[in-house]
Each structure stands twice: as structure tokens, then as C-alpha cells.
């Protein structure tokens, strides 16, 4: 128990310190792992198992939001393939050049070994990227969906490599997993009977780990791939979003173990640190490759750079690839330490970059030529809200109710703005006027300004950071109307007011006041 307390305490302190310097807590967790490894702390029992569960649940929740059809789109598979080839070639070339000038770690290494390091660094971190997208409430935006699609393709490539490198092909019985496709109806029916609350969350964990992780591992496939597949099979269920939210806190706690474990891969020496620092110089090139390829595939410059910036990091799969390669004798053990350091440092760098990713992507757009709007990708064309009186940003339960009341009781032309495709379709089916767009997009707000009629913007997105970014974008575009927003906590409400919101609706506080009014009405009526 003392070891568990040590790990939890160090992780908490490191996470708090990271937050104090405006970095995501996960950077602190990584630092905590390296600190524990450096002092040769005793191994925490079950840490690896908890980390595996965290990654499995993460991929399961990705699957719950995944539209498999996106994987066959050129902006996903072609971008993934191009980026992977370019990264392998550039990394192998750079390392070969370093060997020629006498860098000991790469001197005399075969081209195949250097290419394997390049392959390991061609993957972006699923764990990190999804965390960034969730923090921004952007997992279902266009750039978020493109990024997740690319991550899934990369993960599939990694799974194939691991199967080949380990010399253990999947069991012939693995073809029986195709029965899961029609079998999802049974899972959907069972889900309908489970209901809500903790039983629904437990159902999600059970599906992710039993027919997902355990069954796939049993048949010679990656267990985390199985968790992703099970999530995708359940994605069409009406309660998929609710389950994803119910698993969020549990999943995040499990992932702390994952980030701690990355730092425990070995004690770095000077040559390891120097080589890892050199590999970090390739990150801007990776961002540029993603952005240029996506722009060539007719995505807007802003969308292309947002995708590139969020994918601009190395992956935990890279550590697994070099570890398996080392076990198979394809490269030396030193590379496991080097790649672990590069992965951890890339998380810290990417976290700092993506703190202002929206603003940075907007500034970088000038590096690529503008396109004729009519030639843009159909999902990435700008929209105009016309003569709307009110824009409601985010059409969840709060946003939909707000939109309906402003329209029906106040006679205002209220238009919803939502980037989640499923919510857009559902809202239109219910009779709402909806435009599919990203409220954090400065170019979208410029179109709103040109429309000239909007008098009120309502920030009803479920994540505080998304509402703050939208408020900033709105102000940057010169919006002169009034702004109302929702907040869950007192400090969130205060921050929105401080940044210029004219009215803030405190969800919990206002709900309590409303409940008191209803209770008093019942009491006075004598019913």
C-alpha cells in the first residue's frame, strides 16, 4: 500500500505543478514517471494492468464516436500513408547523416534499423490527441474527425507491424470476430435494458474489456484494437454519447497509470537525451506534412493546420514498436529509452503548442495560398447565417431548449450552430434552423459579422474552454451584439464575465433556484 501511496502522491503533486505553469496535468504525470524511474522507486503492483485498461477504455470511447466511413476518405487514408512514408524517409536520412558525422548511437546502424525508428516516430499519440480534442470539445469537428481517422489508420498499421514482428500471426479463429457485426444487435438490446447510471458505465467497461480487449488478445490480435472495434459497433446506439461521458472520469484516472508507466522505461543517459532532442526537431516537419497534404486535398488552411498541430507529437505506439523491435533483435535497447524520452518530450511541447492551437492555426494560414471557396472540400466550406437575430452555439439539451424558447416565445429568428453531424441531423428533424460549423473558427465569425443582423450570441457548448474560445473568436471578428453563456461552476462563470459575456447562466445555481420556485408553487397551490 505504501508503494501505491507513493505513486499517487507523486503523480498528484506533479500534475498540480504542471497546472500551475499552465500545462496539462498529463505532462506532470510523465515527469512524475521519469522522476520515479530515476530514483529507482519500487515497482507499483498492477500499474501496467491499470494502464492497459485506461488505453482500452480510451479507444472504446473513441469507437463510440467513430464513423467508420471516414476511414476510406482520401483526407484520412491518403494523408496517413503520405505522412508515414515521408516521416520514415526523412528520419532514416537524418539519422544516417548523424551516423556519418560520428554520432555513436547511430554509427554503423543498418538502413533497416533507422527506417524502423522512423516508422516508430510516424505515429501520433491517440491518447494525447483525443485528450486535447476532448478538452476543446472538438472530437466531432471536421479537423477532429480527420485527426481521429488518421490515428485509427496509424493504429491499424502498428497492429499489423506488431503481429509480423512478434512472429505470431492471428489465430485462424480470428475470422469468427466478423460475427460481432451482426452480434451488435444483441448488445444494443441488452443496453436498452441496462438503463442509465453506474450499470450503464459498468456495461461499457465490460464490453470494452471482455469481447473487446480479452477476446481479441485471445485470438492473437491487439486488445486495444478490440476495444476500439467494440466502441464502433455500439456507436449507433442513441445513448452512445451518454456512455462516453459516464466513462470519462474513470478512464482519465486509469490513464494516469499509462503516463506514469511511459516514464519508467529506463534511466536516460546523456547520449539518450541528446538523440531524443534531435528527434524533436522533426516535429515541425511532421506538422507541415500533415497540413500541406490536407490542404492539397481541398481542406481549408485553418482546418489543415489545426489537424497538423494536434497530430504533431510522437506516440505511445512508437515505444511499443521499438520495444518489440528490440526483443526481435532489429535494434538496440538504447532506442527504447530514446524513443520514450522523445515521446514524453513531444507531449510536453505539443501541449504547450495546442494550448493556443486555434490562434496559432489562424496565424499560420498565411503560409499556404488561399483557395477559391467553391473548390473547397464540401465539409469545409464556409457558411452564412443570413438574417438571424440570435445564434445559439451548441445544440445539446441546453442549447436546443434555448433555441426553441427564443423562437417560439420571443419571436426571434434563432439559428443553431453545431459541428456534430448527428446533432445537426437530429436538430433539423425537430424543425430547428441549423448550420453545421465550428464556433471557434474566426472565419465563420467574420461571415456572421457580414450578415449584419445578429444581435445575440448564446454560448451553450458543454465545455467551458470551447465557450471561452468561441467568445474570443467572436470578439476578434468585431461582433457588436450581446453575449450570453452557460457555466457549471462559479469560477467558470466569473471567467466568462471577465472576458466580456453580458449574461451568464449558472447551470447548477439556476437549476436550484428554479426547483425552489416550482416547490413553492406546489406548496401554495395545496397540491
From TrEMBL:
- Subcellular location as annotated: Membrane
Residue span, RCK N-terminal domain: 390-505
Q: Name one Pfam family in it.
A: Na_H_Exchanger
Q: Would I find DNA damage among this entry's keywords?
A: no
SUPFAM superfamilies of this UniProt entry? NAD(P)-binding Rossmann-fold domains
Q: Which Gene3D superfamilies match?
A: 1.20.1530.20, NAD(P)-binding Rossmann-like Domain
Identify the residues that the record assigns to the Cation/H+ exchanger transmembrane domain, covering every copy: 10-353
- What GO biological process terms are annotated to this protein in UniProt? potassium ion transport; proton transmembrane transport
Q: Which PANTHER family does the protein's record reference?
A: CATION_PROTON ANTIPORTER YBAL-RELATED (PTHR42751:SF1), SODIUM/HYDROGEN EXCHANGER FAMILY/TRKA DOMAIN PROTEIN (PTHR42751)
Family affiliation:
Belongs to the monovalent cation:proton antiporter 2 (CPA2) transporter (TC 2.A.37) family.
Q: What's this protein's name? A: Putative Kef-type K+ transport protein
